[in-house]
Sequence to fold (528 residues):
Amino acid sequence: MKYIIVTGGVMSGLGKGITTASIGRLLKNRGYTVTAVKIDPYLNIDAGTMNPAQHGEVYVLADGGEVDLDLGNYERFLDISLTSDHNITTGKVYRDVIDKERKGEYLGATVQIIPHITNRIKEGIETAAHRPLEGGRVADICLVEVGGTVGDIESMPFLEAIRQMRGEYPKGDLILVHVTLVPSDTMGDHKTKPTQHSVKALRELGLQPDIIVGRSDIIMSPSTKKKISTFTDVPAKAVISAITAPDIYQVPMEMEKEGMPEVLTSLLNLGNREPDNSWYNLIGNECTSRVTVAIVSKYGIEDVYISIKESLKHAGLSLGTEVGIKWLDAESFTCDELADVDGILVPGGFGHRGIEGKIRAIEYARTQGKPYLGLCLGFQLAVIEYARHMAGISDATSEEMGPGSHVIAILPEQEDVEDLGGTMRLGDCEVLLKKGTRIYELYGSETIVERHRHRYEVNPEFIEQLEDAGLVFSGTCGRRMESCELKDGAFFMATQFHPEFKSTPTRPSPPYVGFVRACREMKGQQTE
Ligand code: GLN
Fold:
């Protein structure tokens, strides 16, 4: 097992996650099996209880782990399925060490950050790295991205653990990539001082980078690279420019041009393998049409809905259709703003803010014949909309939202749940699709496995009444309704599960493909 550790300097938000995922892609294209670990130095056990408006989307893994959105980037770029263990947080590390102490497993010892916390961090990285991927293969290379910025108090124990690992592994088995900002001044000249300072901070912790990735607006000149090299002892050819690419999936190709693969393979003693670049052809698919989808949401912040945004892109790539997004605030949009879009999407969410607006958007889609895709809360609200306007249950609502007829009710096993962290219905569940439905046609299979994250469900007491009124429950899991659709008219589909967590550029998600295709057909009809 070889390790590539990725740290960040100067400031957060430099695209360290995309850099990490892209490095993985370069190695995967060269036939190596790659896995990835994300370290989040915060005290939360996981991202499940965190406000997505501050930290971005809570990504859900197959095993139900609620994790940082970067794991979504790794899964999408590398076509792998990760586990909760691949997201290490300070919360998890300290909880384990303290639990062990209470059990008396360190009996007699003074329990300390070094070695007990650092040992737990090293074990955590090594265990996750060796966990077999799909197909039972253990990765050749593990990427480890350290969240936050070098110098943060919270990341100290992690960087110390990495310093120790560096001493324990042979030279070519563990390398360090430092991602930093290289701004330019008003004259267009690159400024290297922030990079010099952040490498200095890293060295004070005993870590010398092997590669520096400089995020900049324009490609760094050889003289800028030379200057960074002089101050940091990183050879100029290992100072790599990372400019903002038009699309994240183009970042590996940009790194390729900067010579990143040669630097990586030489540092890791990997030898020169001919790359298979078929992934680039897929990503570079020419788009011959364009559609616009309205996402009616509470936050309207792209990072909160990153998996949805990417899934629309993947579906579009497979169809040669570019998908533009019109973000509409569920609380303030007007239906006029929906008139010029080709489809409407209501994403997942929690709490009552904005739900009446979302219901209005769904009603608009259904009555005006615009393609609709509803996800999780967007599924529950589609059921509520149908109940109110088509099944005569005028006060239909969700138990989550307050009084009324609870067409959506709490899952029975959730009734006594008190803790909020990690207690929802989470992760992979098998769903049975009804033959003859649109969703069955899209998946082409009777049983599918998709990821979940919810506490409420369609109330079984109302199912018959809703079905009699014409709503088709097309997917189920035991007594649980998993998807619904309308038989006739425009594409109208909603799922209790989150298909966006399994979509990758090579494996676009079927409901998204169906939706984008319907949007394209809709647009075609309008322009004919
Ligand atoms: N709030 C709803 C529930 O808990 C929907 C959750 C979601 O959209 N992820 O069931």
